[in-house]
Amino acid sequence: MKIGGRALRSDAERTVRTILEAAERVLSKNPAASMEQIAEAAGVARTTVHRRFASREALVDAMTAWATEQFAAAVHAANPVTTPPLVALYQVTANVLRVKIDWGFAMSRAREADPEVARVHAEALERCDEMFRRAQESGLLRPDVDLTWARRVYYALIHEAAQERDEDADALATRLVDTLLRGIGSADQRLS
After folding, report:
1. Where in the sequence is the domain holding 145, given as residue range(s)?
2. Residue 2, strand partner residues
3. What pLDDT tens digit does each residue of the chain (192 aa) get?
4. Is there a single domain that holds both residue 32 and residue 63?
5. pTM score above 0.85
6. What are phi and psi of 59, to 5 degrees?
7. What are phi and psi of 111, to 5 degrees?
8. How many CA atoms lie within 13 A of 148 on its CB side?
9. 100 and 26, same structural domain?
10. Residue at 191 is within a domain
């Protein structure tokens, strides 16, 4: 982990991660929470938080950077370009939901204007598009499905599922993939 462009020792990295995780918990419940409240939740002195983060804004920026890294790692870990399409779809979904649920406050602060956030999201988009192309080629998705529309629906389902903070990411992923692939209507009610 890097803060301020420099790598941290392992003990310092653990402290920073503890602060980031506490900040996520505290700020998710109270976006106006103080640095002192965050320090208390992290079990460290307020001076420790201030030593690592010059300001509340710097702390939120670090949270956003950490969440963005976790999002990128979640997509990458599923190997969506080489894993069988159904497995990849489920694994990407479960991994991304874990990040969006665990880091909801920080993820909501990620701005596309940030070059790193834009890069990570562009790479995730490419991987998702490739995963959907492979799913269509394998017969998992119908041949007439508009893949751009399918991806947009998938993203919307992930966004909505991530609002279910009290439900297990694996169960949500199963429900989401089932909804994406089978829909919610009966098979005999097709419009076209």
Report:
1. 56-184
2. 7
3. 555 555 556 677 889 999 999 999 999 999 999 999 999 999 999 999 999 999 999 999 999 989 998 989 999 999 988 899 999 999 999 999 999 999 999 998 887 778 888 888 899 889 999 999 999 999 999 999 999 999 999 999 999 999 987 889 999 999 999 999 998 877 665 555
4. no
5. no
6. -65, -45
7. -115, 130
8. 0
9. no
10. no
